[in-house]
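Exercise 7. Predict the joint structure of the components listed below.
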Amino acid sequence: MSNVTLFDVANGLATLLLTGLGSILPQPLHGWLINPNLIFALAATLFGAILLGASMINTIMLIWFERKMLGRFMDRRGAMHVGYAGLLQNFADGLKLFRKHTLRPREADSLGFYAGPTAYMVTSVLIFGILPISTGWSSGVLPLSLLLALAIFSFAPLFIFISAWSSNNKYSLLGGMRSAAQMIAYEVPILLAVVAVILVSGSFDLTTIVNLQQNYWFWGPLFLALLVFVVGMLAEMERIPFDLPEAEAELVEGWNTEYGGMLFAFFMLADYVRALVGSILVVLLFLGGWTLPSYVPSALTSFPLAGIFWFMLKTYIVFGVFVWIRASLPRVRTDQLLKVGWMRMIPLSLLSVVLAAMLVLVRCLPVFGCVPGLGG
Amino acid sequence: MATAEAAPPPKSSGENPILYVAKPLATAARQFMKSLIRPSTIVYPFERLEDPAFRDKVAVAAGKPIGVGHVWDNYRGVHALNIATCISCNLCAFSCPDLCIDMVTVPGGDPKHPKKCPQIDYGKCSYCGFCSDACPEGCLTMTTKYELATPKRSEMVYSPQKMNEIFERKLPMNPIRVERPSNEDAILLDVPLCIGCNACARDCPTQCITMLDIPKPTPKPGEKLPKRIWKEPVINDSDCVRCGTCISVCPKECLFWGTHT
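Solution:
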């Protein structure tokens, strides 16, 4: 599986489909169908569809995973009736939301009300086109893929604020303002923590960063950066204990108070897409991505789709830690949130940048060994 | 921007990372490990604690003594009625504080004395158990059945036949006996008050009251005889079940509980 990429698979499928279809059709149609441009267009569409399907199925499985895990934390069982162990419960919930009528408040602004959730969803899903899940999953060579992913990831407060403002509801507006303040406050430490990774790896390309970690996962030497990144990601994903924008006790449902039916499902799904992206970023930047250290038996890394298997396993473990935090900690106050963001996380992230610079200078650490191929 | 106007937060240990982050995380992890294999929540409609096999399995798994944590036998649930032994004495309906018991006719009585058995509206019932306590024959008892949910309100009314089916299922019964007139107690007649109206004999469920003629006294000059029927009830003690219906229906309140001297 080493050299077969996902695009190759999509291209092969498209070629097979179009040539097969073209061979049974008369001449003018036959000529149009085996046009290489058309094949390329269909291949790109198939590639996107496969990515979208994989990310959506993973997101919904993530919701199932969270429900089962939260159930265990609360000494109950979580979803268990639809499908085996409740695996299809979330599909059923999605179907129910899909069938519901979407109501718009009379005074709400129509454009923002409908465009907000759509843009939120689209930008959240868009990141999957950039993230390399395994070797061959990337959509192309992007030298700045890490920056691009983080840039798209930080679009969210804008669309949240747009949809909150156009809902014409005080709770929505308060939630949107909180969301914007929170995301801006935590954007800075996240980027600084990423700077530490970039310093050590000397690259903005996620594939390069992962390949550098083959024997040297960054979570050890850059533990401080990992801590800041995880806390910042919790705030960016608006998960407990930083779910102030949708604090049920104070703000009905926060910025999606006025949304129902499929628009609400968009918000819900996009939240979990962002949670999945956050977990994937932690795995990519700090936990070695799809690689395993070279001293593990090769049988563990040579079976088909091994990279994806190990990558998703790591991702789900990281998300399990997020669920663990959600099950344990209460929601913080707004002032505590901003205080932790500006006064604790930013100094810590600066410190982690300094530590990363020292690591680049020293090149070897007593416990963690020497960094292979350091520096840019 | 929200904190710009806010008052400075109180000095507290709210950011102590050991106390406020590490401890809850440890607690949650312990709970997770404990319920990883089998959470202690019972999946109720599929698993029931009153199912003895399941109950013992749970107890053994938790290392607890067998037989704990089920529905107890003296639970006051839906009634069971043995129609065969019911004597239509009405006592359950009389004793009901919620007026949820109606006496309805069931087949099996003679035309003169139709057999009436209680029909209970569980929408009103408060499960006090007074009716079971009052039942002289012990035919209306409370069982451990507690699942009453129905989609229709009319299905909350349980007919005597339905309660008889519950009786035939032989659930653990709870014959509530708080205090009852014993066999030494008898129903006595305050003779001067009686007007011979036949109400007690008419309503007696066991028909143990007969109205006997009494001699009409000859009035003395100037004395006016009371306006009444010259009969008075005689109760057959061996047939009487001490239900007290006659006391309830007596218009002159001349029947009362007492002991034969």
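Discussion. Chain B has a mean pLDDT of 80.
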